[in-house]
Amino acid sequence: MKKLNLTLTFSVILMFVPGLSTPALSNPVQVLAYDDGTSEINVMIHENQYLRQRFLISDFGLSGNYLVKTVQINWALGIPPEDFAGEIKLRDYDTGNVVTAASFTPPLSGWYDYDVSGSGFVSDHFYVELWWTGGFSYISGDTDAPHHGMSEISTDSGATWQLSTYPVTGHYEIDFMIRTHVIPAPGAILLGTIGVGFVGWLRRRRML
């Protein structure tokens, strides 16, 4: 009876921990990307222009809350970045809560990773927003990937946002080449580690 009670208790704990599963514990880092990796267009951004990319955890077969670890951006055209700077903000889709996660000056071109894990931002549905404080540059855009209406642009300090399109040869929807690396929320990882250790202890005691 003691063995059955302990097994049921552990099972109940696992049921109520969002995102806790064996695959998540063995390979916790997940890459969230709506683009297909190929750039078809370069989008110019400048001071007083703002971009954001929305990420919905369930679109990637995940559930529960995740800590945003890295923001990855594909900069284009090799524009000199001497006077170009800005901030990366993370905004929860449901609550509107926002944190300034990092500042940036982009490299000449190519993918670049920005560590935002120190912000402690956790969500299952969120925006990555790029706010410019000076200068201009270009970001890569994808017009061929399956579109989710996730890329938006603002020219009034984020007061209003509109879907990003390319109107020169047709109103193509653009996916900004912005990606995120996320891991299960720290509480889920901690409890999962405790759970694995607990199972090992029970087995050593011959209770499982």
Descriptive keywords:
208 residues, alpha+beta, 2 domains, six-stranded antiparallel β-sheet, 3 helices, 16 strands, 18% helix, globular, disordered N terminus
Protein architecture, described:
The protein has helices at residues 2-15, 22-26, 186-204; strands spanning 30-32, 41-46, 50-56, 66-76, 85-92, 98-104, 110-115, 122-123, 125-134, 136-142, 151-154, 162-163, 165-166, 172-173, 175-176, 178-184. It is globular, with a radius of gyration of 21 Å. β11 (151-154) and β12 form a beta hairpin. The protein has two domains: 1-18 and 187-208; 29-184, Jelly Rolls, CATH 2.60.120. The strands form three sheets. Strands 1, 2, 4, 7, 8, 10, 15 and 16 form an eight-stranded antiparallel β-sheet that branches. The chain has a six-stranded antiparallel β-sheet with strand order 6-5-9-3-11-12, with no helix packed on it. The longest helix is centred in the C-terminal third of the chain and has 19 residues, at 186-204. With 208 residues, it is an alpha+beta fold. 18% of the residues lie in helices and 41% in strands.
